[in-house]
Design brief:
148 residues; two-stranded antiparallel sheet; 5 helices; 10% strand; 67% helix
Length: 148
């Protein structure tokens, strides 16, 4: 692969990822969930299974504990999450999504379906399955982190 081809492929993948992020965010806002940024969605993805500590959230997002704590303060203030006693560590607090936070996560899932629908229409069912399979082969393992 030539340098220019590699650069073109990199640019295309970055453009698709940015477009997808914005379409999901716009879909969430259109469903009535305001006061959020795309970075909140990455936090919600970590919190949705059963909550997380600020330390765990910071590691997931690739930020400092202070930055994660500020993000938690913000989503708690906006009613998307709440702090609870940690069941296994009396010194820690577990950050969990509220019903509003879970509804926002469901709205993001719906927006994601809408965002990728044009890809399926363009590529067809076999093409979209092939794209999905190929991307899974090259995607890094672990959580999807925002590109700060």
């Amino acid at each position: 692969m030539q340098n220019s081809e590699a650069l073109g492929l990199s640019a295309a993948l970055l453009a698709v990822a940015a477009q997808l992020t914005h379409r999901i965010h716009d879909g969430v806002v259109a469903r009535g969930f305001e006061g959020l940024r795309p970075a909140h969605g990455f936090a919600f993805a970590r919190l949705s299974p059963g909550g997380a500590t600020v330390t765990e959230l910071a590691a997931h997002l690739g930020v400092t504990k202070q930055a994660a704590s500020q993000l938690v303060d913000e989503i708690v203030r906006k009613g998307y999450a709440e702090r609870r006693p940690h069941p296994g560590d009396a010194r820690a607090r577990l950050i969990v999504l509220t019903e509003r936070g879970r509804a926002c996560t469901r709205a993001a899932e719906e927006a994601a379906v809408e965002a990728v629908r044009p890809w399926a229409e363009l590529l067809g069912e076999p093409g979209i399955r092939s794209l999905q399979r190929q991307l899974r082969q090259i995607a890094p393992a672990g959580p999807v982190k925002p590109a700060w």
